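We close this part of the discussion by returning to an individual protein. Part of our work consisted of pairing the sequence of a single chain with a tokenised description of its backbone. What the numbers capture is local backbone geometry rather than side-chain detail. The amino acid sequence and the backbone structure tokens for this protein are reproduced below.
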Amino acid sequence: MKMSEHHAVTFEDAAAKEPKSRKRGLSVMRDEDHIQIPEKLHKSTVLSLIKPSYLLGLGSKNLRLENRNRLCYLLHKLVRQRNWVNASGVLSMLLKGTTKEKCPTVNRLKYLVSMELLDHLEKSPEDKFVVHLEFVIFCLTRGDVKEAHQAAMSLMQEREFRGHPMSNMVTALTFCERWHSSIPTEMKWKDSDQIYSPMHCDFSGAKLSHHGGNSGSFDTVCSHEDETHLRNDSDTSVMIGKRVFMEIGNDLSKEGPIEDHVYLAAENIQPLSSVENEVSSLNDVGPVNFASLIDALDGLDSWLLPIKLPKSYEDYDNFLKKHGKLLNDDYKNAMKYLRLALYSTPPVLSALLPFIQLLLVGGHVDEALKELDRFCHNSQTDIPFRLRASLLECFDRNNHGMLTNCFEDILKKDPTCPDSLAKLMHMHQNGYYSTESLVEMIALHLDATYADSNTWREFALCFLKLSQSEEDRMSVCLDGNEGVKKQQFSVCYKKIPNILTEGNSGKNWMLRCRWWLNRHFSKKKLASDIAAGDIQMLTCKAACASHMYGQEFNYVVQAYTNLDKEKDRDLCLFLKMHMQNSIRLYSDHLRKT
């Protein structure tokens, strides 16, 4: 211990006697293993890990300095070219990278370019106009309708207002909010009375549960309060929710077609003057006999009709008096600018639903159907078709041909939609839709999603009906080596319908059968279906598989064996019936196995 103290004193004395001109040695740090690490090296290592840009300043070649010089050169070049968009981006990067810059030349450059950009923005009315639009949307999302209205009135005085698609939409939403605030409380829908939002999913009505084969569950859902258990959440009141505002706000900065992906032929776009004349003529029409429409409108869902209809005949007179006051100037202005937004270039399809809603509030049912017909002809989305189908179900429900066309168009544009398929299945059960068409629509749906047992059951029944409508073909004797079973047996298959084998449809069915071997009927899927314990789903899928691949197909054999163990006689008979009437559409899998 004395020796250690002596060495320590000697080291301190030597350090004190060092000349001041001598460079100070590196301070050291000791880790747990008592290894000496220079403190500067330790800090450099930490900086390189937590701040990778630190490495740019190390080495003989200072990359950070080179990058700054390149940014300055690029900024000079862009300013000379008057390329303000790219110059603003380079300036932003340079400002971030030179926050502690002490060079007067670089700081002067940043200052001068910033002043140039500010001067350019002040001379750009388009940018100011977009900011004005965003301010109106901000007021609406905040619920400040009065401030939004004042801002919208000021916006309408701008030179760019008339030809800007979103300006008409934002102005229309402002008037819609003012109009909705004037609706009496007893005529407004409550949150518990509203169905799910059509902008998110289906426009054709509330989601329907279709368990079993009865047609009653597919009827149009009425809008009475005592039936609100069929409805989910929604945003009624002409869909003026904050979500819609945010979508429009994001579209203000986009170039090209706005959010809707609706492309109308150039000859179908009406001039603004003719659109304004149509709106004026519509508003000048005498009051519609709304009382005669109440019974028909009563079948509409709340997302299509944003006012609550009277519950009893005693309330009709009071309702009609209040309804007449709703068709005020705000209502007319909202109609005007919604239509201008719809027929602008490019069109804003977000205006379609609130425009149809307001037409229905005014009793203009024919005009609403006419507008939807125009958009259905050239629409790339399913929204107009869903709206049209909902109106036809309410006002022309016996027009089965037009309804089936609407539901088919919806499925073609959105094959995952279960409600439209359920409506087609319901119409097929009532004899208004052919088996050949339904089997195509169900297959299209199964191409896009995994359906429930009821859909698979209806699919199997379609195959059964098609097989019974064709003549029996020659019996074929299969050798056991070709099938799943080892013994020899004789199988009699029905004649394959022509719609499943001829032309492009036949090619599509062959490709589908090959694809579904892995998608719906693989060994892994079979094990999953058995483990799920849904024997109805297993039975219905096996029935379909027997028609597509034959009764000796592995999925069919294993499903039948499983049903036999479950001792479910009804399901066994159901599957056996389909196996005996199988058409075996596809047989290439037998040669592969």
Notes: Residues 104-122 form the longest helix (19 residues). Confidence is low (pLDDT under 50) at residues 1-32, 195-269, 471-490.
